[in-house]
Amino acid sequence: MKEEALLDLFRAMEGILGPNYECRYYPCHFSGQDCTFCFCPFYPCFLYRLGGEIIVSSKGNYVWSCKNCWWIHEKQNVEAVVNYFSGYSRQILIEEDWYFFNRSLQNILFGEELGVIVNGSYDLMPPNFYELEYLEVDKTEFLAVKLDDFEIKSVRKIKDIEEAENEILIPEKEGRIIRGKYKGLFVECRI
C-alpha cells in the first residue's frame, strides 16, 4: 500500500484531483469527497480521532480500518498534505519510513510532533488524547503494536509502558471510549 500511497502523493503534487465520480466505489466515504488520496500516505496512522481503529480482517490478521476516517478526503486537508510534502524530494519520500510519515501527520494536525520515544517504543497516546477531555481511571491496559514495512505484525495488550519492546503504543479502544496512559495518569475519554 505504501507504493500506491506514494503514487497518489506524487500525482497530488502535480495537481489535486477532487471528487472522482467515475470510480465504481464513489463515494466510499461521503458525497463530494476529495479523491486525490485513494490510498492514504499516513496509513496506518493509529490516531483514533481521525476515525480509524484496529480490527481483525477476514483473513485473521490485524489491520487499521480507515472506514470511518474522512480526514484525508476533505479538500482543505488534501491541500495541507500536498503543501507539507512539496518541500521534500520524491527520492526522500520514497526512502522514508512509517515514523517519518506519522511525525509529518502530527505536524500537519497539531503543528508539532506529540508522539514520544519511551524506552525504544513510540508512544502515540499523547496525540490520541491531546486536547480531549479525559478522566483519570484505575490502572488500565493499552496496546503495543509491532509494525513491519507499514504492515501490522502483532498487537498485544500491556499494562505498563516498560513492558513495550520497540513497539508503537496506542490507547485501547472500546466503542467510542479510548483508554491508556497520558501525562503519567491512566485515563479514558470519549472520542
TrEMBL record:
Pfam families: zf-like. Residues 19-85 form the Cysteine-rich small domain. This is Cysteine-rich small domain-containing protein.
